[in-house]
Amino acid sequence: MSGEPRLQLSGVHKSFGAKIVLAGLDLEIGRGESLVVIGGSGTGKSVMLKCVLGLLRPESGSIRIDGREVIGLSGRGREQVLKKIGMLFQSAALFDSMPVWQNVAFGLVQGAGMARARARAIAIEKLALVGLDAAAGDLMPAALSGGMRKRVGLARAIASEPDLIFFDEPTTGLDPLMGDTINELIVDCVRQSGASTLTITHDMSSARTIADRVAMLHGGRIIWSGPVDAIDNCNNPYVTQFIQGHEEGPIQVALN
After folding, report:
1. What residues contact 97, with CB distance under 8 A and at least 6 apart?
2. Which among 43, 94, 96, 163 has the fewest CB atoms less than 10 Å away?
3. Local structure of 230: helix, strand or coil
4. Which pLDDT tens digit goes with each residue over 155-194?
């Protein structure tokens, strides 16, 4: 990786009581790179994201965005960092009381203080990028299908043209066809924006479509990282078991 990483986690530890979730996590994302972190349920993928976003505070380690330490930031410093970040939540997390365009423009109006007319114009522009027309901007979230909600969530994630975008299980709850559509939209939107992206997923179809590089989280650490086209021949038994979905292997599958 050349140049300063967009995002760098070094030696990050996070526990909940006696349960160790992140055990010295090291991870870097380059500028313009799409990194997908894979791993089973409960391996700490969401905890990692929450630590970066400042929703959780690690016991030790360092998290830097554009070279700036973000652990412990608050107030204006935290706001400056968050302005660089876009987020597509697993469930889209739309505000049910707001029409679609206000959902997309929420950060522009509430965070950046942009005039509503200008924010609406940007929202309609971003909706077009994800395949939704201007009329969709006036719909309420309750009128949207699951796939449309994901599209709106993606439009909101890119509305402020962030430098770093997080995708939390972007295809969860979607049928395979709509999942493929969302994956391709993510690739197109990221390519146009030039943003760095971090996706967490257990969906290997999504990972193969979105990723430049894949990293596997297991036991609180990254146990393998490499180009997406190298994953099938990586010779790591944990990775092989995970991507092939085999019950037998070094990963112990909990049955309760």
Report:
1. none
2. 96
3. helix
4. 999 998 999 999 998 888 888 888 888 899 888 888 888 8
Letter for the amino acid at 68?
R
- Residue 216 CA to its chain's centroid (Å): 15
Exposure string over 151-171, b if 16+ CB within 10 A, otherwise e? bbbbbbbbbbebbbbbbbbbb
With a CB cutoff of 8 Å and minimum separation 6, the contacts of 64 are 5, 7, 8, 10, 70
* Residue 178, token pair as written in the block: 């709509």
The structure's pTM equals 0.90
Helix (H, G, I), strand (E, B) or coil at 16: strand
* Angstrom distance (rounded) from CA 240 to CA 249: 9
Alpha helices in 60-175 (DSSP H): 75-82, 100-106, 116-129, 146-158
Architecture of domain 32-52+75-214+225-244: 3-Layer(aba) Sandwich (3.40)
> Cβ(182)–Cβ(154) under 8 Å?
yes
- Helix/strand/coil for 169: coil
CB atoms inside a 10 Å sphere around CB 64:
17
Give the residue extent of every domain in the chain.
32-52+75-214+225-244
Question: What region does 113 belong to: left with phi over 0, alpha with psi -120 to 50, or beta?
Answer: left
Render pLDDT for 206-255 as a digit per residue (tens, 0 to 9).
999 999 999 999 999 999 999 999 999 998 999 999 998 888 888 876 65
- Give DSSP secondary structure letters for 182-211: HHHHHHHHHHHHT-EEEEEES-HHHHHHH-
Number of other residues whose CB lies within 10 A of the CB of residue 186: 26
